[in-house]
Design a protein that fits this description.
alpha/beta; six-stranded parallel beta sheet; elongated
């Protein structure tokens, strides 16, 4: 059925466990904010209302449901009865599409959607795989969205037909090369114009490999190299990293920041040293690139997708020596080459990872699902 002939708006439910952290919550926020409201009616379902970012969601004037849309399989005896609550919720609200941003392999929401007859879409956000539940979840889906090129190898030939790769997007009008008062902001950190500022905006969890970056900076032993780590520094992993620095005077933990643009503005280099497990598609380096900053990263899933057109900006994962060499290469780059590389990285973010492209591809996918119903 042509979209023009559909009288009612396409009612999409986005399911996500919570908005405690920005991550996926920010992506869902961008989707809901930018979808054409003359065509789509987005709604959101999460487990609870904790999380400061939920306040931003509510400002978008969308309906938010606080419903357990996914349940534990055990005990198996009561699973059908507990699943019935999800089925009733989906059926009562009469959603046209359910788009899950749940990180886990849970298939209960997909099963409930299947029983009700609602097309079920999920976005594969991480490189976790291997258990049967992922296969069941995939079988129950109408469409599967992947966010990097390696994820397609997870799926069988039968399932791969459902898979569509849609990379995450960034607001390239919000993240730009110019940020006011950046020189004044820089003075808060250093008065030495010869300092080489390295920034990493990161969720401080082990897979991010920040210890590799810290060790690289320590071994370079250059007082003009300053490392600023932006991210929640209260967890056990972060505390271990702080001990690793041994109060090094060139390494600083700045904590979590709601606006990271000032830190992009003062950076000479942005580093993402993810460990070999890889990740879906990290948004932080894309934000840095959109801000006109040079990004280097480990050669792993997700990161290598972003830097595929800049192979010289990749270093071997979990290899301090390789990272040191990459940092020195960027430090010793000629000024005109540096400026050109910054422009090229900004152009890639604008042309391939813009929020406009992200919204366009999702809108087309939703319309195609409705046409096939």
């Amino acid at each position: 059925m042509p979209i023009d002939m559909i009288k009612n708006k396409i009612k999409i439910l986005y399911t996500i466990p919570n908005f405690d952290t920005a991550g996926s919550g920010k992506v869902v926020y961008d989707l809901v904010k930018n979808l054409d409201r003359t065509i789509f009616e987005p709604q959101i379902c999460c487990f609870h209302e904790r999380g400061a970012f939920l306040d931003e969601i509510k400002k978008l004037n969308v309906k938010v449901h606080l419903v357990p849309f996914a349940i534990n399989y055990r005990p198996f005896l009561t699973f059908p009865f507990r699943l019935l609550k999800i089925i009733r919720f989906f059926k009562k609200q009469q959603f046209d599409i359910i788009h899950s941003w749940h990180w886990s392999s849970d298939f209960s929401e997909g099963l409930a959607a299947k029983i009700v007859g609602i097309p079920y879409v999920f976005t594969k956000k991480s490189m976790g795989w291997g258990n049967k539940a992922w296969k069941w979840r995939s079988s129950l889906s109408s469409k599967i969205i992947t966010i990097n090129s390696d994820m397609k190898f997870f799926f069988s030939k039968k399932i791969i037909e459902k898979v569509e790769e849609i990379p995450l997007g960034v607001d390239t009008d919000y993240y730009t090369p110019q940020f006011k008062n950046s020189d004044e902001f820089l003075k808060e950190f250093t008065d030495n114009k010869n300092d080489f500022i390295i920034v990493s905006v990161v969720n401080l969890i082990p897979v991010k490999g920040i210890e590799i970056l810290i060790n690289a900076v320590i071994e370079l032993n250059n007082p003009n190299i300053k490392l600023y780590i932006v991210g929640n520094d209260e967890g056990a992993y972060a505390q271990g990293l702080k001990k690793l620095t041994n109060e090094n005077s060139t390494i600083f933990f700045l904590g979590k920041k709601t606006d990271v643009r000032p830190y992009h503005a003062i950076a000479d280099l942005f580093v993402i040293p993810t460990l070999p497990l890889g990740e879906g598609l990290p948004i932080a380096p894309l934000e840095a690139m959109a801000s006109g900053k040079i990004v280097i990263g480990s050669n792993v899933s997700g990161v290598k997708d972003i830097l595929k057109k800049f192979p010289n900006n990749l270093f071997e994962s979990n290899n301090v020596q390789s990272l040191k060499e990459s940092i020195l290469k960027m430090m010793n780059m000629k000024k005109e080459d540096r400026i050109q590389l910054e422009k090229n990285m900004r152009s890639l973010a604008v042309n391939e990872y813009s929020i406009e492209q992200f919204i366009k591809l999702h809108s087309e996918l939703y319309k195609n699902i409705i046409r096939r119903k």
